[in-house]
Amino acid sequence: MSVAKVLSTALSVVVLIVAFWYSRDNGNRILEERLRQVLDAMLEVEEQHVVGEVRIAVGYGACKDIFVRGADVFGAMAPPKKTAHYNSIESLKNLKELYALFYAAGSAAERYVGNDTLFNELVGAAEAVPSSYSALGGNAPVMASRFAIEGARVLLAAKRSPYVLKHIHPGVEVGGGQGDLEDDIHLIFEYKTGEKWGKYEAPRANRFIIHSDNDNPTVSSLEEFGMELASFKPNLLVVGGLQMMDNFPFPPGVRKERLKAVRDQMTLMPTTTRIHFEMASFTETELLKDLSQYIIPYADSLGMNEQELPNLYSILKYGNVSFISDFNPRVAVVLDQMREVFRLLDKLPETAGHRQVTRLHLHTLAFQAIMIQKDSPWKNNLAAATKAALTANRHVCGNSEISIENAKMLMDDGFTLSEAAGAGRIMFDSQHPVSCWNEDGGKIEICIAPVLVCTAVRHTASGGDNISAAGLVLQV
Length: 476
Description:
Elements: H1 3-47, E1 55-59, E2 63-69, H2 70-74, E3 88-89, H3 92-105, E4 109-113, H4 116-127, E5 133-137, H5 139-149, E6 153-156, H6 162-167, E7 172-174, E8 185-191, E9 196-197, E10 200-201, E11 206-211, H7 222-232, E12 236-239, H8 254-267, E13 274-278, H9 285-294, E14 301-305, H10 308-317, H11 331-346, E15 359-363, E16 367-373, H12 381-397, E17 407-408, E18 414-416, E19 425-427, E20 435-439, E21 444-450, E22 453-454, H13 463-473
């Protein structure tokens, strides 16, 4: 080959490389500009809405959460040969097979450990990891703190233990009686997108929670909390933490009686006080059926994630539970499920104190969806969806300032409104990124807000509680 041909070939290669890098850099600039437009538009909406004089009561319970990277505990263990589902954990084999199941699916889960020795050994292993840390946990304290951060006045149903009083937000009043010196511990294993454990790989960042809690499942703060509700006069009562009852070894009939006690507290609220039920990781079919009978019919609003919505849909429609679901569902799929849940809830038999669910909030990795009845008191739907989406990034990144360098969007350029044939489609507009529209002759309003997904994950646990609270506080 002549020198001229060699030089010509080399020049062609250089041109291709330069063109490739220019194209990639140009593409990155376009993506960054799009993210910047989306963020600026959403921040503008958020700045226009502030929390007024709102009183919110939040139940039930509190615990000490210990956070640790799953790899720092499970990494020293041989991964299981297969995955398996268990309602509760009695052995290390149960734990590894169950952890691998949800880890590989990228789904959050929470389970009760009936083996105290195993649980204490796991706590010791977690605390021995230098990067592990603890924080006040439980649905109720997390939501209460978020409400207080946003400016609401808050009453929390939790025992007044030293740890709770030390770590709760100063704007939260704790009203659940005196607690023990030792707090119940919940162990949270977190993992990031792409992490591997043997042949198992996590498709998204998430967490796996275990506990051996013998106090919170009984809703022990309920009665003393109730004594303070009348004078507090909340605009909103939030019911949460009931997943602690899942597969807990209650004596026969006790769990149902405690659920009835929660129901009775809900029915004592005046109609001017709205009630929100925050769902969580429920796996026991019988518990979900009881919730559908004793709790959900007495709530105005429900909050859930992409796994909890299919569970509720399945229990209402088919009477069973779906353990694993799509970690990144399409908008059309969840909208159809939300519409059907609205329809099925409307058919529940009316009893004394019965309320009609007029608000559903679904929080997913990629987007927030809030569906309300237009003639209900819920307001600021667009702002609420926007606030929830922004809070998702802030919580996971652990930073109040959202950085587009640590963010990405998973939503496509548009989404269909339903899986039904002929359904309309909404195209994404980066300058007006939150889409709202009316359905059912103007009776229903739906808003979809894209999440600027955090790519520098600090923590995933408690994300749903922060997101739900941030959306709720603007709608009361």
